[in-house]
Amino acid sequence: MTGHIHSIESFGTLDGPGIRFIAFMQGCPMRCQFCHNPDTWDAGGKAQYELSPDELLTETLKYKNFIRKGGVTVSGGEPLLQARFVGEYLRLCKQAGLHTAVDTSGAVWTDDARKVMNYCDLVLLDVKTTDDLLHQSYTGMARTNNHRWFEYLKEIGKPIWVRHVLVPGRTADEQHVRAVADYLRGYSGVIERVDLLPYHTMGVYKYEELGIDYPLEGVPPLSDERLEELRKLFFAHFQ
After folding, report:
1. Which of 28, 108, 158, 179 is 20 to 30 A from residue 4's alpha carbon, by CA?
2. Is 97 left (phi over 0), alpha (psi -120 to 50) or beta?
3. pTM above 0.90, yes or no
């Protein structure tokens, strides 16, 4: 079994608790308008690494002294497109005494994807929007599987860190933020953290390099002031 790995970060601090080894898997079924990594979309695209789970573990353990109080995170792209590989890799990481996390959009709903949870301590789960109509045009997919994941993780009691990107003209308004807070309140028993993230344009150059039209051309980054306003509104409503 070989995993197609877009890139590796050996000293991550944003994708789970503590310092983490992060494997970014190649391939994603979604086409989110705000995505800053379009180079991860193509599942058959050129991957920086082609490794077995054991080989990736060997690479991981080179950094064990740094990540022993943090752990490993498998991200993407969408890691659960390669669920069998991810599950085996995380199983080996658990045997090695490492904390494990998966960073997912919740787009993939399969038996193999759900089995990954047997070896996963934490799920970083996106909420693109709770508006079903917007979700389809905004991401290229229905919201159904994302909702299924929230329900399933609540059922099995798996801890969740939620991530939600605030995009001007799409999701960065009071009505939308209240709706997301209302929705997530139903999962407060397993949600440990909610990160509201500002839309930025740092990945635009990748679209240019790939010859892809950037769908949010002309949309400005979210200001720090507006981000703080919406964060205050969200957490006041989420309680």
Report:
1. 158
2. left
3. yes
